[in-house]
Specification:
This protein is mainly beta and 645 residues long. Helix content is 3%, strand content 49%. It folds into three domains: 150 residues, Jelly Rolls, CATH 2.60.120; 321 residues, Tachylectin-2, Chain A (5 Propeller), CATH 2.115.10.20; 135 residues, Jelly Rolls (Sandwich), CATH 2.60.120.560. The protein binds beta-D-fructofuranose.
Length: 645
């Protein structure tokens, strides 16, 4: 289709490429009546509607002033609208379509001798999008179009506009640059306030300003780790989900990158939800994510336009997965695609639930790519159903092989859980054999990747920060995950973080008791502390603010429970044996308001301290006589190359 010089530039509506000179307009529905079209029933009203009808959600994306809108008198009315005969004289028939997704019931048919030879339905959205049929094989035939509304329930209507015969397909001009410029300007305006906040963490990844939630799509490409995250550029609250982007050469130092993904409002998209990175069979990168609009969730992809992964474009084959894949099965809250490869095949898992209204059956469903480009997918069924009946829904599943076991991570509300077990590869069903909690604190929706050395890396979202400061939330430190010889999960921050360390301080091993604390000659609000006690019961670490008006924060262990600033978790098994009588090693990161604690590489607690302590002194304390084996600390530097943005 040739684009005419005059483009109709209306926010949220498809841009009108008026029929090119080669195109044959079948109908634009701009008149007050249907002319030669034959109307049956009531649904289509007396003539094309002037946009949205009473009690309807806003209809967008149509061209001109009018369209076919069978919401006349609501969803309850039915009818058909049949065109006069015409000759098929171009390769494509293209049209704008919206309304309900009821195959055969809210649809448009192409009829040849009264038989349906092509059909299309809406996608449960009032936003009209282009759809086309390739009719090259029907050239010269006489045909009719029939617009059908036989559905009286929810989404029981169809919207159609601008039906043309053409040899070149109409396109909605991409408005990426405009959307991104607006988003970047909004973030830039919030930066001075965020930067001025002395309580904002310095060595945890966060956006230049405004809101963040889940880490998304970590990947390694041409010498850089790339990490994306759920980001609202417009406020320090959730909304307008984009994908923010940072990159790092060494996992210790990071740089902000331009926002990678944005909601394509002109395609009816409102949010770009969580997802993951994938590679096609020939190694091309794709980001898979859940596209949210005024319709059911769909799984979309974006592809990079440059080797630095700065500029992304939405995949031309979107949507790549829709709920139609599930046939009769309804998956509620279907979102957060996670990609993995196994035995030469490519898969996605997605979160959701089978019967939200009946209270749950939280599931992870699994899909296999049917082509090398990862655009065609087959639904393989339910990989995993959460065993706890009170769990209603699963978000952000991660599923991968870790050494010789399979690991599934589920976010079903805090705390985030993990399951280790086996995969029945024939049936693609996961059998969990062991479970645990990844982090007992302010931690949610982690995402994982394998780096070029085969290490499994994980970031979680730390979500306990206070509102109203021009920034909100961070990610955890990058963590390594691995299994012990007995197959149990361990976690620790990546060793590369040592590059952030300043001058080392430490004390000699010594006896501690209720009267004798050990104190380090090190003060600050960005610190790494390593402390080891010969036995766990009675062991503690105290952060004492230099500002005596602020409360101290304690990490304590009574032999059964570890408590980090009041957040309690059962002591790790490795400290067990005779409970509380094995060494306890704490690896503690204080990043202004954020405390991230690893106990024996087995138990993790990320916790936001309120009020923030400011600069602290560090003391090892004991509520009963015990031996301190080690106490050392380093001030840590900012992760931001060239300072905070
Ligand atoms: C988890 C989550 C995801 C969703 C995203 C939206 O925190 O709810 O399920 O994709 O956040 O921001």
């Amino acid at each position: 289709m040739r684009l005419a010089a005059i483009a109709l530039f209306v926010l949220f509506s498809a841009i009108a490429p008026p029929a090119g000179s080669d195109d044959l307009l079948i109908a634009d529905f701009e008149s007050a009546d249907y002319g030669a079209w034959h109307v049956e029933g009531e649904a289509f009203g007396p003539g094309p509607a002037e946009g949205t009808l009473p009690n309807q959600m806003e209809v967008t994306g149509y061209l001109g002033r009018r369209l076919v809108n069978s919401y006349f008198r609501g969803d309850g009315t039915v009818g058909t609208l049949t065109s006069p005969e015409f000759t098929i004289a171009r390769r494509y028939i293209a049209f704008l379509i919206g309304g309900g997704r009821h195959p055969q019931r809210t649809c448009i048919h192409l009829l040849l001798d009264g038989k349906v030879v092509r059909t299309a339905t809406g996608r449960d959205t009032e936003h009209l999008l282009w759809h086309h049929w390739d009719v090259a094989d029907l050239a010269g035939k006489t045909a009719r179009l029939q617009i059908v509304d036989r559905e009286q329930g929810g989404w029981g209507h169809i919207n159609i506009d601008q039906i043309v015969q053409c040899d070149e397909l109409p396109r909605v001009p991409d408005r990426r640059d405009e959307h991104l410029a607006r988003a970047h300007a909004a973030v830039a305006a919030a930066v001075p306030r965020a930067r001025a906040d002395r309580e904002r963490p310095l060595f945890h990844v966060c956006p230049p300003a405004q809101w963040m939630n889940d880490p998304n799509g970590p990947l390694y490409h041409e010498g850089y780790y790339h990490l994306f995250y759920q980001h609202n550029p417009y406020a320090d609250e959730w909304g307008h989900m984009h994908w923010g982007h940072v990159r790092s050469r060494d996992l210790a130092h990071w740089e902000h990158q331009p926002i990678a993904l944005w909601p394509s409002l002109e395609l009816g998209e409102q949010h770009v939800f969580s997802g993951s990175a994938a590679r096609t069979a020939d190694g091309r990168l794709m980001l898979f994510y859940t596209s949210i609009g005024g319709r059911l969730p769909e799984q979309w992809a974006a592809v990079p336009e440059d080797s630095q992964l700065v500029t992304w474009r939405k995949h031309s084959a979107n949507p790549l997965l829709t709920e139609e894949l599930h046939g009769q099965t309804k998956i509620h809250e279907w979102r957060d695609p996670y990609f993995f490869e196994h035995a030469g095949r490519r898969y996605l898992v997605l979160g959701g639930n089978l019967n939200a209204s009946a209270g749950g059956q939280a599931t992870v469903t699994v899909y296999r790519a049917e082509n090398e480009e990862l655009t065609r997918w087959r639904y393989l069924g339910v990989l995993f159903t959460h065993p706890d009946p009170e769990v209603r829904n699963i978000e952000c599943p991660n599923f991968f092989r870790l050494q010789d076991r399979w690991m599934l991570i589920t976010s079903q509300g805090q705390p985030v859980q993990y399951f280790l077990g086996r995969l029945d590869e024939e049936a693609m069903r996961f059998h969990a054999e062991e479970r645990g909690v990844l982090d007992h604190g302010h931690f949610y929706a982690p995402n994982t990747m394998f780096d070029p050395r085969g290490r499994c890396l994980l970031w979680g979202w730390v979500n306990g920060f206070p509102p109203g400061r021009g920034w909100r939330h961070t990610l955890t430190l990058p963590r390594l995950l691995w299994l012990t010889e007995r197959g149990h999960l361990r976690q620790r921050p990546v060793p590369e973080l040592a590059r952030l360390r300043g001058r080392h301080v430490g004390t000699a091993a010594q006896a501690l008791g209720p009267e004798s604390a050990a104190e380090l000659g090190c003060q600050g609000d960005c610190l790494e502390v390593l402390v080891e006690f010969e036995t766990a019961a009675g062991a503690g670490l105290r952060l004492v603010p230099l500002d005596s008006g602020r409360p101290a924060w304690d990490i304590t262990c009574d032999g059964h429970t570890l408590s980090v600033a009041g957040v309690k978790a059962p002591l790790p098994q490795s400290v067990g044996g005779t409970p509380g009588h094995a060494p306890l090693r704490l690896h503690v990161f204080l990043d202004r308001m954020l405390l991230e604690v690893y106990a024996n590489e087995e138990l993790c607690i990320s916790h936001v301290l309120q009020p923030a302590p400011g600069a602290v002194r560090v003391q090892a304390v004991a509520s009963q006589p015990l031996r301190l084996l080690r106490l050392e600390a380093w001030p840590l530097d900012s992760i931001w190359v060239g300072g905070m943005p």
